[in-house]
Amino acid sequence: MLVKRIWGVLLAVVGGFALGGIALYRQEPINSLWIVVAAVCIYMLGYRFYAAWIAAKVLVVDPTRATPAERLNNGRDFVPTHKWVAFGHHFAAIAGPGPLVGPTLAAQFGYLPGTLWIIIGSVLGGCVQDMTMLMLSIRRDGRSLGQMARDELGPIGGFAALIGTLMIMIILIAVLGLVVVNAMKHSPWATSTVFATIPVAILVGFYMRSWRPGRVLEATVLGVSLIFLSVFGGGWVDHQPWLRTVFDYPGLSLAGFVIGYGWLAAILPVWLLLAPRDYLSTFLKLGTVFLLAIAILLMHPQIKMPAITQFVDGTGPLFSGKVFPFVFITIACGAISGFHALVSSGTTPKLIANERDVRLIGYGSMALESLVAIMAMIAATLLDPGVYFAINVGAGVAGAAPELAVHTISGWGFPVTTEQMAKLAHDMGESTLFARTGGAPSLAVGMASIFGSAFGRGLLGVWYHFAIMFEAVFILTTVDAGTRVGRFMLQDFLGHLWKPLGRTSWYPSVVLASTLVVAGWGYFLYIGVIDPNGGINILWPLFGISNQMLAAIALSVATGIIIKSGKARYALVTALPLAWLALVTTVAAWQKVMSPNPKLGFFSGAADMAAKLAAGVLPPERAAVAARLIFNQRLDGWLTVLFTAILWFVILDMCRVCVRRLSKQTVAKSSEAPYQPTRLEDLGVAAGLRDAVQGSH
Amino acid sequence: MGWAAGGWGVVRWARAAWRYLRAVSGDDAYERYLAHHAAHHALEPTLSRKDFFTESQRQKWTGVSRCC
After folding, report:
1. Under an 8 A CB cutoff, do B24 and A85 touch?
2. Residue B67 lies in a domain
3. Nearest CA in chain B to A209
4. C-alpha separations of A608 from A244, A591, A616, A618, A635 in Å
5. CB proximity list for A536: less than 8 A, separation 6 or greater
6. To the nearest whole percent, how much of chain A has pLDDT over 90?
7. In this structure, are residues A266 and A514 in contact, taking their beta carbons and an 8 Å threshold?
8. What is the pLDDT of residue A118?
9. Is A632 helix (H, G, I), strand (E, B) or coil?
10. Based on the structure, what is the number of domains in chain B?
11. What's the rounded Cα separation, in Å, for the pair A325 and A331?
12. Do residues A202 and A244 touch, judged by C-beta distance below 8 A?
């Protein structure tokens, strides 16, 4: 006990010292090790004290209570699982490209605002949300967020959660598709490598289904080796003048490929493309994150970005808007992700063997995810700031010609030269790195520099394309999986209109629903690609707002349930992050809709472009796409209004339920499953689970 | 247990890591299913490895199982 206390105090001192050091010490470049130490200490403190307190007092974790995995054990999806195995599953499910892209973009404000929010937001918000949703779903037989919203709040809350989820899916896939397209644009090496992953996935799919059914590890080893080969193969392709041209595409063609791919993946059986790709991307993802962590610890590079840049005033070139609220909207998944609420309810709860595991699996996984976001922030800010901006700022802002771009960026106080950029592009095996918006190329340059200095500089180009391939592979997995989930949700809707459309195995309905979902995100992807400012500046804030809205819905459901269960005095645990998210999302939405600044407001942006089009001052290539961009900005504006309306509907619905409960009126009955004692210990299953992993004979 | 103390500790650790890898990747899912089946539904027919695998994949990809 005493040792644990000393540990706690030590953590608090080191963590507080490191975090304070980061926040206050601004005279000279800071070392990335400080940031990692501060983050890890704060996570451990949060886990050791706050999470334990929430588990004991608010969620009232009961180790004697049987979980759904035990009560409903069917040997398939409901299976009591060792906590570290469930942790692995859950982390693999929540870790996506969002926490890599968000911090990269937020680095335009300097390293400090984003870093602080990633750490604080996760410890007090994201981790709490994930753990709470997991626990609430465990107590309700593994029900999903939408079902819990309907059961506990009412049909309005349930419907809003459903619509919100479908919308976020569409925006999410579009923005991630755009990230991949921008990474492959006119890059034969990246394009050929990413294309090669498709036949590799299909091969692995056949292997696991027909040749050696269910031998997941064999198939994965085969697939991952082939993917490594394809990274080198891409380098070879890049040096063959005739092959180069075969894989050299502009953004629009690549967007067409991604859209076609997403459509095919949604209607093909999962074993052929989606499932094998997921195995490969999960292994690559975990492996690369692990490698990156080691490389950062080994090299502990200096952070070259200033703590705070002048762009906190809202004039940022990657995206417009002041540091409040846009750093929170931009970081999104690295601190709090509404999407996690969908995994924490539904999939993971069916694996939990004992309620006491929710702290590790719910809180711990998110803390680790947040650490991934910290590493992405380090990879973005260890670049020379001039280089960072040259890669990430769209040609429409900095200027299309390299000379013009370096002049603009150097003028902001971040010196960079065309020679420097040309050398960098050459080292990375790319023709140019100017205006490669979307975050993936700059993250890849950052990762390649770390990997290169840790494991050999000779292979910079290979490291760069490995990083691009790694991001592309799991973005494409999200595209597949997201389209498929969207398809199921849409079929569910359509089933209310005409019964047969709701049958998930009826092929015409499958094709119709998939086409509608792909058309939805395909549209936003197309607009993003033709946007001369890179598209990310419009789509990413929209994604951030929708994601944070979903988190607010989840926290509303959690707060409602906590108050209904008679623990109103602890409601702040979820109500405080909820209030913060509601504030941030609403202010951001207000500015995106109402701002008279055409760079920030959707409607004023549309009006500004319409005026320029009418006056004939737009260059011809911009005038050609202006009508579509104007329509899109207005659509985005209305979408933002809709997101905000959904958010407030759910919050008010939750408040209504809470007021009724607190004034002793009737409310919807708690949907908690009745208590049953666990028998896992008696039956020796708990010991068996331990043996299965730890192997004590 | 004596052999586990010295140099064999590494072997023991490697075995545990291997078991963990199999469990976390789902490589041993069919074996676990067979064990569960034998214990609880011994009288019903068991799924073949291929059918079990196809079915569990279908199930996995019906809900939200991947995030952003």
Report:
1. yes
2. no
3. B50
4. 40, 16, 12, 11, 15
5. A105, A175, A178, A179, A182, A318, A319, A394, A437, A438, A439, A528
6. 74
7. yes
8. 98
9. helix
10. 1
11. 11
12. no
Distance of alpha carbon A533 from alpha carbon A528, whole angstroms:
9
Q: By C-alpha distance, which of B25, B61, B24 is closest to A215? A: B25
Q: What is the mean pLDDT of residues A385-391?
A: 96
Distance, CA of A340 to CA of A45 (rounded, Å): 22
Q: Which of A692, A282, A91 is nearest to B19 (CA)?
A: A692
Are the beta carbons of A480 and A188 closer than 8 angstroms?
Answer: no
Amino acid occupying residue A355: E
B21 falls within a domain? no
Helical H segments across A663-683, by residue range: 680-683
Q: What angle do CA A175, A177, A179 make, to 5 degrees?
A: 75
**Ramachandran angles phi, psi of A499, nearest 5°:** -45, -55
Taking the Cβ of residue B11 and every Cβ of chain A, the question of whether any pair is shorter than 8 Å is answered with no
How do residues A118-164 score in pLDDT, each as one tens digit?
999 999 999 999 999 999 999 999 999 989 999 998 888 888 888 88
Tell me the shortest Cα–Cα distance from A409 to chain B, in angstroms: 31
Helix (H), strand (E) at residue A582: helix A572-594
Q: Is B17 on the interface with A (CB under 8 A)?
A: no
In a domain, B47, yes or no: yes
- Give the N- to C-terminal CA distance of chain A in Å, as an integer: 29
Structure tokens at A520: 């939805």
- Report the C-alpha gap between A266 and A269 in whole angstroms: 8
Q: How far apart are CA A434 and CA A409, in angstroms?
A: 11
**What is the signed CA dihedral for A35, A36, A37, A40, rounded to 10 degrees?**
120
Q: A148-185: string of b/e by CB count within 10 Å (b at 16+)?
A: bbbbbbbebbbbbbbbbbbbbbbbbbbbbbbbbbbbbb
* Band of residue A694 on the pLDDT scale cut at 50, 70, 90: low
* Strand, helix or coil for residue A502: helix
* pLDDT for B4 beyond 50: no
Please, are residues A355 and A361 in contact by the beta-carbon 8 Å criterion?
A: no
Residues in chain B within 8 Å Cβ distance of A346:
63-64
> Is the CB of A343 less than 8 angstroms away from the CB of B64?
yes
Q: What is the pLDDT of residues A2-57, one digit of tens each?
A: 677 777 777 777 777 777 777 666 667 789 999 999 999 999 999 999 999 999 99
Residues 6+ apart with CB under 8 A from A200: A223, A226, A227, A230, A280
Beta carbons of A287 and B21 less than 8 angstroms apart: no
Which of B51, B6, B7 lies closest to A214 in space, CA to CA?
A: B51
Q: Do A347 and B65 touch (CB under 8 A)?
A: yes
- Chain A residue with Cα closest to B53: A214
B40 within a domain of the structure (yes/no): yes
Q: Which residues pair with A684 in a beta bridge?
A: none
Interface of B with A in 31-60 (CB under 8 A): 32-33, 36-37, 40, 49-50, 52-60
- Where are the domains positioned within chain A? 2-186+249-531
Which tokens go with A78? 């409901």
Q: How far is B7 from chain A (nearest CA, A)?
A: 16
Stated pTM of the model: 0.93
The answer to whether A342 and A133 are in contact (CB under 8 A) is no
3-state secondary structure of B61: coil
Contact A558, A132 (CB under 8 A): yes
- The DSSP code sequence of A539-573 is HHHHHHHHHHHHHHHHHHHHHHHHHHTT-GGGTHH
Print the domain residue range for B42.
Answer: 28-62
Helix runs in A56-124, H state only: 68-71, 83-94, 98-106, 111-121
- Alpha-carbon Rg for chain A, nearest whole angstrom, is 25
Angstroms from B32 CA to nearest CA on chain A: 7
